[in-house]
User: What shape does this take?
Amino acid sequence: MKRILIVGTSHSEATCQRTENGPIDRMNSGRWYDYFKDLGHSVTCLARAGCTVEQQFMAVHSYFQENPNAKFDLAIIEGRSLETNVSIPGTPGPSKITYADFWRRYDTSLGKDENYRWEIDNVDSQKIEQYPEYKPYYVDYVFSLLHSVQHWSTNYAMCKLIEEHADVVKWFAFSTATIFNKNPELKELAIGYDMMKSYFISEDCWPYPRLRFDNDMICACHHMNENGHSHFWNEFIYPRVKQYL
Ligand SMILES: [Zn+2]
Assistant: This one.
């Protein structure tokens, strides 16, 4: 049995069953890393929809503060790519953030007011018009070198931190990457390539996993449904990590 750590975003948190105009139905089964469990391995997962890389880092840091002796054979990080990660000031919270806080948002037994609020929040660079209050900040910051250095450094630091507790650390990110697809030579992306390549799960994971998904594998909000997660496991994840199992 291998001990496996997963860090992720909405693409890892759940399988999605959303239909057009339907409610988001997130299923906590059939996710790409649940197949490790079928093979007899143990999985610890830190994944949350909408999180920034900074939030991932805080969750990972908190986890190892509370579990300083935790050891993993393999860690797979479904990280954030630059264009979906713009951190903004959030709601001031308690000074100490615990591992459990990371999950509190989904504890429906807690009232809304008790849901944990991050001091660092996230807005999507492609939805700038939805956040007029941040517009001056956006114009100068989004896709600037400062944004790029901060973003990729945090991804890199998170891998370095996890490396102290895991024999093998592998990283990839799903990405919308529209501006970068138009101009893959942009230095903001090149920084990320140079910084993260030693952790790539494979060369073809950059800037996003090169895998074709059929329509019946993707939900209406463009997340993988159960079919998609199975496809992603079989065709992308498993062939790239089976050597570590
Ligand atoms: Zn969905």
User: Anything to note?
Assistant: Residues 3-244 form a domain with the Rossmann fold fold (CATH 3.40.50.1110). Residues 105-116 have pLDDT under 50 and may be disordered.
